[in-house]
Design a protein that fits this description.
The chain has 188 residues and is an alpha+beta fold. The chain has two domains: 3-71, Winged helix-like DNA-binding domain superfamily/Winged helix DNA-binding domain (Arc Repressor Mutant, subunit A, Orthogonal Bundle), CATH 1.10.10; 91-187, Arc Repressor Mutant, subunit A. The chain has helices at 3-17, 24-31, 35-49, 74-83, 91-103, 108-115, 120-128, 151-156, 171-187, and strands at residues 22-23, 56-61, 64-69, 106-107, 132-137, 145-149. The strands form two sheets. A three-stranded antiparallel sheet has the order 1-3-2. Strand 2 (56-61) and strand 3 form a beta hairpin. Helix 1 packs across helix 3, helix 2 packs across helix 3 (35-49) and helix 5 (91-103) crosses helix 7.
Amino acid sequence: MELKQLKGVLEGLLFVSGDEGLSISQMKKILDVDKESVHLILEELRYEYEDSQRGLAILEQKEIYFLTTKPEHSLYLEKMKETNLSSRLSQAALETLSIIAYRQPITRVEIEDIRGVKCEGPIQTLVSRMLIEEGGRKETSGRPILYQTTKEFLTFFGLSSLQDLPPLPDEDVNQAEEEADLFFSEME
């Protein structure tokens, strides 16, 4: 494969690798070239990205390479983020996501029992944004799909694991217990 083709392939690999990036050894293995060739391709890409009319750059951190946007364009990226109102999640989607995050894996029917309304739309939205995914099937009649959060969910909310989720307030549980105690005391 020619150098020009290898640059295109490596550019795509760096884009797809996202936040994980790629090491030299991974690039070497995937491209099936020697270490010097990987360095040459990276330098060619870096040289092309240094052009002021390009919006991307190659970032190296601890021998891992990432494809990223140029820091000098951050103002425009922030403006895009502020004006992209359609990227916000609806209240229904946020409620559904919260239920899945705390009760996963969970079926759509179980989510609807908790919310008290249908939630097909919010689930489709969350799947399309890769915040939730199918986590298998429940061993019951109909074998409904179980939903769970994704790695992107953790990244989006800046969590390292699900244990970092804030604890649920005890108020609802305590209030329900008090109401149940009042109900049963009246029956005695």
